[in-house]
Sequence to fold (628 residues):
Amino acid sequence: MKNTERNKKIILYVILAIGAFIMFFPFFWMIVTSLKTGFEANKVPPTIFPAKPTLDNYVYALKTAPFLKYFKNSLIVTIFCVTITMFNTILAAFAFSKMKFPGRDIIFAALVAMMMIPFEMLIITNYSTIVKFGLYDTIIALIIPFTSSIFYTYILRNFFMSVPDSLYHSAKIDGASDWQFLWEILVPIAKPSLVTIALLNAIACWNSFLWSILVINSTENRTLPFGLFAFTNETGIRYERLMAGATIVVLPMIILFLFARKSIVTGVSRGGLKG
Amino acid sequence: MRVKVQNLTKRFGEVTAVDNLTAEFESGKLIALLGPSGCGKTTMLNMLSGILPVTEGQIFFDDKDVTDLTPDKREVGLVFQNYALYPHMTVLENICFPLKIKKVPKAERIEKAKEFAKMVHIEEYLNRKPKELSGGQQQRVAIARALVKNPKLLLLDEPLSNLDAKLRVEMREEIRRIQRESGVTTFFVTHDQEEASAISDYIMLMKLGEMQQFDKTRNLYNQPANLFVADFIGSPTINQLHGIYTEGGIKVDGDNQIIKTNNKWQVEEGSRVVLASRAEAITFNDKDDIKTKVVEYYLSGKDTLVNLKIGSYNLRGYIDATKAIKIGDNLNIGFKKEGVFLFDELTGERYYE
Fold:
């Protein structure tokens, strides 16, 4: 009895280890390759650890492409997108959960139905809107289309709905307005959900690629993923340099994930008020 | 503050939760809104607080019409059944919240909150979060939060229903004490007649949205307005003998005796009636001549509660514990004048003397 249980655990851990290895290996290989010299990167059979680690590739990457500029652009886009999206999401979720007005649920159902329209279908209309607004090739063009999200509104609305109405009534009796109730009570209670949504949103913004390729032309307005793409084209097949560029791009996200891992996981798995 | 409701009505679609209710409530009293579930008592409370808009009728606080005022403008405090404490705030922050909304300076509101925390005996838990408190403590916090802004009206929605039996008795005495100390007019919703009788000055008994009786607490027991009131109030439940009024007495179903009491009712011969009597109104004197049979008896201190059979009905009375009885005994009883009522069987209306 005990043995079979132990065997089960061993099998489980082996499977998890293999999975972790498969997930981790590309990152590992990217970092290792970025530290190799050009000769060593193309050697057959490949070496696992670089014989003589070098940062030359990073120096090259930062010299040929303005990664710091890209980084700054990405940061601006992400911060604005996330802040505005969170603000809009909180207000919309509140309206759709706690306020009562005619047609509320129908409007919400219509919005949810709109989630079925794929992003690719919106690209052309969004593109022509941006061009007509004269925003082509500006940072603003990267922000404006992504300042609201039905999906996040949906998640947050469900959380708000799990907060008992008696808290709302109680706040009203305590003299609070809807606005005060939202920011003083509902938002602090919803903090774990909000952190999760903000993080998911930040990752999505940071990695957004297709849209920036379409609306950005000049080098100075590129974001990191686009910059990396351009860098790839310019660098050709010097893998060690490509990997250095890629590392620069993904590093901030990895660091963010390491720090916020707990919030992401608890936020996703957390449902109601009870902790 | 005096409270008056006039033709107060609340309908939810087809259902009438509160039906055309008119009453006036004295200032500084503790009033129980009592009734079985679904009788409209919580609806009534929520209309007083302003959470629920009224369908028809008016509500007056003193002489001011507050019917269309929103909750934040009514100056009421409300304690919810589930307490509704803000889970992310400490006890102190919870109590301070109404003052914070009112923009009372921080030092002043903390001082005030502490004063009320002391009044409800939770001053040593000020820095805890609500979920670290027991049910009774949470309720005290909720009461303190409701009182801290000096409301003119305190509303309590079944505040004791989530507590265990021992704590319930303790907390109801606390509520009575706090109400006396603060002097605030208080409404208290409950479905427990014992709880309502124990602490309230007045009781409004409701059934299916209609007021059955609104009177001093004692009067609901001594002078019930109808059979529903008589049946709902009192423990043990009032004895009920159904029968026909004939020859100046009551012929109980399944029995041949004609029961005559000391009361003088004006009843039409042959009416279907219910003779209701409190257990303590049953006498066991030597000259008593109503024949019953002992079904069961329960010893309880100096008295024995006996369960008697008369016709198809059961009757409970208190007999001196020194009297030896056993199941199956024939026992003669009589009725006192007080605590004995006659109701119409169909309408439940009371025949007055």
The domain at 3-232 of chain B is CATH 3.40.50.300 (Rossmann fold). Chain B touches chain A through 25 residues (CB under 8 Å).
